[in-house]
Amino acid sequence: MEYYVYKHIRLKDGSTFYIGKGKGDRMYSADRRNVYWKRIVEKDGGFTAKLVKENLTNDEAFDLEKKLIAEIGIDNLTNMTEGGSGGDTRKGFTEDEYKVWLENKSKAQTGKEGWWKGKKRNEHSLKVKEKHSEGAYSYDWLKNPKSEEHKQKLSEAAKNRIRPMLKCDICGMEMKTNLSRHQRGKNCKQK
Q: Is the pTM of this model over 0.85?
């Protein structure tokens, strides 16, 4: 019983905008969140995490997550599903397989020795490691601000991009946006 259910609350108005299931420090993490969640957090300048219930099994946590999402309503949340479908590193593993997986995780994850410790690297791997240590494989160029010329080229490319028209099966509305989000939202009027 290592799981818990949590909710994220907007700083702006105190409303709940996300319900989740996790373990460890997942409720405080901004990693692996959807774009709608990120927009709210960016707009509000952060979020408040509140623990709903702890010491749950995986199944109990999934059930409570589903229940809370149904109570609040998926249209009022940034959750992409009705709950019960989040990732779990143990999914599909037997207890023995999970223990083996834990033993083989990298040092970055567990503090244990990495994969290459005491092993001979192949030639390509040695060259890549050498380039990284020389700074030749730097990704700093991704962080630099784009020039006005570059921004203009990106804008032109986006304008010329052809997006297919999608038609909603429920209301018949045509759009070039996310159809599944439209169907869950308030703009989809049933005939």
A: no
